Each structure stands twice: as structure tokens, then as C-alpha cells.
Amino acid sequence: MRVATDLVSPDTERPPETELRYALFGAHGCSVAMAAVPYLLADGDPGAARFLAAGEPLPMGVQPVIVADTTVYGAVGVERLVRFWSPSLPRP
């Protein structure tokens, strides 16, 4: 049994961090279907996929994923994102 005065190494004090594998970009607003995509890509690993905030850099080694509804509006959003995608970043 542990007591509050026991010394605990820093590795055991915090839960293990999950590695981000997929960085999601929304091509347009948000919908319920788009909100389900991180859970589908994560495959049981809760931190494996998440939407990046506006202006947040793409972490090294992470696969970018563009998420959009299957509408003309969504397709136009995807086309706009891909057209202006930086050549120094991996392609989605």
C-alpha cells in the first residue's frame, strides 16, 4: 500500500502519453460526421488523431488528413486547402 510520503518516480506519476499519428484539418465548418473521424482513425488509441487548432504547427512524423462532408461545398473546401498547401509539408 502506498502512502503520501512514498517517493514515486516521475515516469509512474502520469499516465503514458499517446502518440499523435493523424493531424486532422477541417475543410469547412464542423458537423457531427466530422466529429466522428478522430474516433474512427484512432482505432482504440484516444490520442492518435485530433483536429489541429488554427495556426497550430504540424508535428513531425504526423500524417495530415483533410476532413470534409461529401457535398459540393466540402469538395470546394478541400480543393482550396490542397491548392494552397505548403510544398514543405507532407501531402494529405
Would you spell out the secondary-structure blueprint of this structure?
Blueprint (H helix, E strand, L loop, with lengths): L9 H4 L8 E5 L5 H11 L6 E3 L11 E5 L4 H12 L9
Parallel strand pairs: 1-2, 1-3
Q: Quick summary of this structure?
A:
Keywords: Membrane, Transmembrane, Transmembrane helix. The protein has 92 residues and is an alpha/beta fold. Helices cover 29% and strands 14% of the residues.
Write up what this structure looks like.
Keywords: Membrane, Transmembrane, Transmembrane helix. The protein is of the alpha/beta class and 92 residues long. It has a domain at 25-83. Helix content is 29%, strand content 14%. The chain has helices at 10-13, 32-42, 72-83; strands at 22-26, 49-51, 63-67. Strands 2-1-3 form a 3-stranded parallel beta sheet, covered by helices on one side. The longest helix has 12 residues, at 72-83. Residues 13-17 have low confidence and may be disordered.
Give the proportion of residues in helices: 25-40%
Rounded radius of gyration (Å): 18 Å
How far apart are the first and last residues' alpha carbons, in Å?
49 Å
Main-sheet strand order equals 2-1-3
Category from helices, strands and their pairing? alpha/beta
Number of helices: 3
Element order: H for helix, E for strand: HEHEEH
Shape, principal axes of CA atoms:
globular
Tell me the number of strands.
3
Determine the strand fraction and express it as a percent band. 5-15%
Major pleated sheet: 3 strands, parallel
Low-pLDDT sequence parts:
13-17
Average pLDDT reading: 81
